[in-house]
Amino acid sequence: MRLNVRQGFKMAFKSIINNKVRSILTMLGIIIGVAAVVILVSIVRGSNQKLREFYESMGTNKINVSAYQYNGDDITQELYDFCMGLKTLVVGVTPNSSYYGPIKYLTKSTDSNQEYGQPITYLGSDLYSTCNNYTLAGGRDICWLDVKNYNQVVVLGAKLKELLFDYKNPIGEKITIGGQKFEVIGVYEAKGGSGNWYVDYMCVVPYSMSRLLNKTTSMTEFTVKAKNAAATTEAITRITGFLEGQIDSNAGFFNVWTENTWMESSDEQNKMMSLVLGGIAGISLLVGGIGIMNIMLVTVRERTREIGIRKAIGGSRRSILVQFLIESAVICATGGIIGILLGYLGTLVAGKLLLDMVLLPSVPMTIGAFLFSVVLGISFGMYPAVKASGLQPVEALRAD
Amino acid sequence: MNLIDLRDVYKIYNEGYENEVRALNGVSLEIGRGEFVSIVGASGSGKSTLMNILGCLDIPTYGTYYLDGQDVGEMTDAQLSRIRNKEVGFIFQGFNLIPELNAYENVELPLIYRGLSAGQRHEMVMEALARVGLTERARHRPSEMSGGQQQRVAIARAISTQPPIIMADEPTGALDSKTGEHVLEILKGLHQSGTTVILITHNSALADASERIISISDGVIIDDRLTRGAAV
User: Which CATH entry fits the domain spanning B33-56+78-226: 3.40.640.10, 3.90.1150.10, 2.40.240.50, 3.40.50.300?
Assistant: First the structure.
């Protein structure tokens, strides 16, 4: 006789509700497995995203150039002019030199700060902020004339501004860097977030101030910002060619590289991590599935008499098979849904605690986890269901 | 053509081994439509095996069984389950109700397997429950009912599909004599309304209520006679 699917579901729900404790224990394996998959994969995705954001805040498509000449000759202006000539490829170029030392404002000094240590003072061109993805929050940025006229001006990173000035407007105030007075002309927006505060614990002065702070006028490190990933590759070739013409290999050396490749390799690593953790969580799902099979086998044994009765009053092999399959599929699907809900919760909590971000599992993965648990239920329920449906009615009725 | 036509049927367990058991040892039997037949015998005589075969719960080792002209031995699982659903209603000694389901749901089960709509089922279930006088107990589970009430639920389940044959295996065996009589009255009523009733019992007093008594011993029929009450 035929048994329609709606009736099958009704019977399955009835039997699940009638055996609450057993059903919940059976679901537990699936719940934990699904929740583990959802949480682990989401965390890896979140940390990946976090890392990407970090790289992006550092600035993607950045080309690092180091050029050193033994006689101390400076190549800054030539490189600057050459790079700015590559208008289709390059958006900015700046020396990437720095000074590391205490900064003071009135009675406040970074010397006395135990928590953050000393900030970094960058010696940059007028395009420093463009090259390093800083945006102005107030005041003005360093300009070409500041560099040319040796103006003692400084633009503060958000963290350093907060430390020295709190909520006071710093524009026009004078701070002391390496014993020299600098006028604050601008402040950058925070870009690091609370996790990467150190990218905002800095300030920028015109690179011509190197004379005062580092006692040298020669710049050896540069950052070139290319328009996009493709332009990066092209610009590296051009700059390399230019430097080959400028620096005799007997009189100095140079190196040109980009951090884009780091990001790509970290993406690779994260994919691997997702696979490994997903795999481990998958194994726990598999164990959960075997638990389902075990319980369903016990269920079949326990309900042999019921199966006998059902067969005696007209239940066909197929209808018994469908009944037990639906039952295990419903148990797994219910477990899957609970697992997904727990997974969402766990992801939110773990995202907040571990990564300090609002992290949610991706929708395709959620649907995938649900479908996987249903498939798990059907495949692991198959053997017990076949066993149940194959029982002879007389034998089954004879069971206690 | 007879409703039931059993020709030289054997049911042998562990055939060829030392512990071979011949539960049925060459039984031929014809039962017509509308008869009220008792099959009597001591326990182990093979009467339950005979009922299982008559009810298509079991298949003979040898011999053929024609039910309503169709050879049961040739049938597929789906066809056999259709026979069990449509042609035969079983009443067991141990009631065999599903404990998780209430009276209504137990009676409804064969109708679900038949694929009827909820509306049709409701009508048929309530009618069957009314015939055994248990309408007000519909929502009770078997554990909340007495033995006699449980057996009446089982009878309601057997008759809900309005099958042409009712098979009752010691239907009063687990009941006290008063409730046993009540169950017998219901069976008599079914017979009068045209249903073929086959009663398996070792209780001769019960058997006397039927029209025909078939005695079985050691897997063979030793006696087949009409009772005094039979309308010849």
Answer: 3.40.50.300
**Per-residue model confidence as pLDDT tens digits over B145-166:** 998 899 999 999 999 999 999 9
Domain ranges of chain B: 33-56+78-226
Q: Is the dihedral of CA B107, B110, B116, B117 positive or negative?
A: positive
CB within 8 Å of A239: residues ≥ 6 apart: A63, A65, A79, A82, A83, A224, A256
Tens of pLDDT, residues B166-177: 999 888 887 888
Chain pair A-B, CB pairs under 8 angstroms: 74
Q: Which of A31, A39, A30, A36 is nearest to A287 (CA)?
A: A30
Interface of A with B in 18-47 (CB under 8 A): 18
Instruction: Map out the domains of chain A as residue ranges.
Output: 5-54+265-398, 61-258
Report residue B49 as tokens. Answer: 């095996």
Q: Between chains, do A313 and B52 touch, taking CB under 8 Å as contact?
A: no
**What does the alpha-carbon distance between residue B160 and residue B85 come to, in Å, rounded to a whole number?**
10
Size (chain B), residues: 232
| Residue whose structure tokens are 């998780």 | B100
